[in-house]
Amino acid sequence: MKHYFILSAFILGVCTASAQNFTRQDTLRGSITPERAWWDLNYYDLNVKIEPEKKFISGHNLVRYKVLNAAKVLQIDLQEPMQITSVTQDNQALEVTSDGNAHFITLKKEQVPGEFNTIDIHFSGYPREAVRAPWDGGFSWKEDTQGNPFVATSCQGLGASVWWPNKDHMYDEVDSMRIRATVPKDLMDVSNGKLESVEENGDFKTYNWFVANPINNYGVNVNMGNYVHFGEKYDGEKGFLDVAYYVLPENLEKAKAQFKQTPMMLKAFEHWFGPYPFYEDGFKLVEVPYLGMEHQSSVTYGNQYANGYLGRDLSGSGWGLKFDFIIIHEAGHEWFANNITYKDIADMWIHEGFTAYSENLYLDFHYGPKAASEYVVGTRANIRNDQPIIGHYDVNQAGSGDMYYKGANMLHTLRQLIEDDELWRQILRGLNSEFYHKTVTTQQIEDYISKKTKKDLSAFFNQYLRTTMIPKFEYQQKGSSITYRYVDIVEDFDMPIRVFVDGNEQWLFPNSEWKTESLKGNELIFDPNFYIETEKI
Ligand SMILES: [Zn+2]
């Protein structure tokens, strides 16, 4: 997202499944099955008609793929109660065998490695209604204050197959796609990418959006409402970026004031992370009837045109009210989620840890390092350490909600260890160029950072990502003599920490063994930027 944090991780507990009873459906959804592995997604042409008065959708999705290995059976996902009504290849009807939400299509034509083929999947039904968008997603069938339909989709975790048929696994992103949404003619659809044409057809209009870049499944969205729009050109690192805003008419003036934070966001994030990753597709903020979501190039917004997170400061430091949480956080995901995407949702911290951390970098850019530090340190109050940040692989299972602010504090701690802000910035930018438009694993991120910092960070990442232990620095002090060690650590964890002694910086090098050394004075203050616990014994 999605910013899961407050509602899902902390109140609804959606991502804290500790009972590990995974089903065959979890495996079909969450693993690279043989029926997925042999073909590589190339293009979707998704056509969908939305009938809000019936809460019904219907359409077809043309799926073009490249054959990697010869095979006969192909898996497509679509969740009940949506139904696949027919599948064809080269106008020949194909047989479909269903196992819950996984549908196995037996192809007739020989599948020759290297060739591109297309299947056309027709579907219809009453899609799952979002229970609490965006955390428990689906279709949000709402109305605006004037009584017009105001409809939006959200589906991270749940999966895009909740409303349209696709290859619903994150490892394989489609290279480009078209979304043609047909809606009642007095309303408008806003989807990802750029609007290429609008066709009127009786009582309906079809909005034809094209996404020129790879896009992850949950990023695809339709938003239907009585939208008005305005826009601007942003003069960025890769030239002029088309920025557009779609809002309800009654919020136009508020939006014009609040969305001034968009160029501020772009300025800060291009500095830290490199060019916005989707110049060809533009950037949009789209008002929706729920809080918001990182839909690629059409970030959705429902934060009531106020700073903070629904008016609250998640850090308790005051700095969280200096920015609109949804603009900054969800747009931060354009770099970490949409540009660099997890292959498996178990590694969701790559999206949420870096993006929660981006809130602090936004403050750093516009308000300075003290503000940034106070903010990220303040967000520690939200950390629960209930279970590890990394979840279970191959079953579509995210880890702990701590992926947000424990993830952010881990990255902030890492910045201290590197002691070179310019190198740190080059690493953040380097991640975005090395893994440009790619899907990745945690290991790839770890290896890249270790290589660039010339430090073996494996124990560091194991500690913070794979356990719930916070390193505890135990110490005894007599005058200027200090004896110390770490407890609650993984093997080989030996992270140095910075302290201030009589106001002067000093580094200490604890590990699991007691050691004694001299401080350069008597008054000891720990640098709060390191996410550790301390105990004087
Ligand atoms: Zn998020």
Descriptive notes:
Its cofactor is Zn(2+). Residues 262-464 form the Peptidase M1 membrane alanine aminopeptidase domain. Residues 1-19 form the signal peptide. By secondary structure, the protein is an alpha+beta fold. The protein folds into three domains: 34-226, tricorn interacting facor f3 domain (Immunoglobulin-like), CATH 2.60.40.1730; 327-466, Neutral Protease, domain 2 (Orthogonal Bundle); 472-536, no CATH class. 23% of the residues lie in helices and 32% in strands. The chain has an eight-stranded mixed sheet. It has a five-stranded mixed sheet with strand order 16-17-18-20-19, with helices on one face. Strands 9-10-15-12 form a four-stranded antiparallel sheet, with no helix packed on it. Helix 7 (349-367) packs antiparallel against helix 8. It is globular, with a radius of gyration of 24 Å. The model is unreliable at 1-19 (pLDDT under 50). The chain binds zinc ion. Zinc ion (ZN) is lined by residues 1-3, 329, 333, 352, 355.
The global form is globular
Cα-based radius of gyration, to the nearest Å: 24 Å
CATH fold annotation of the largest domain: Immunoglobulin-like
Examine the secondary-structure arrangement and name the CATH architecture of the largest domain.
Sandwich
Instruction: Please give the domain count.
Output: 3
What's the short story on this structure?
The protein has 537 residues and is an alpha+beta fold. It contains 12 helices and 29 strands. The protein has 3 domains: 34-226, Sandwich (Immunoglobulin-like), CATH 2.60.40.1730; 327-466, Neutral Protease, domain 2; 472-536, no CATH class.
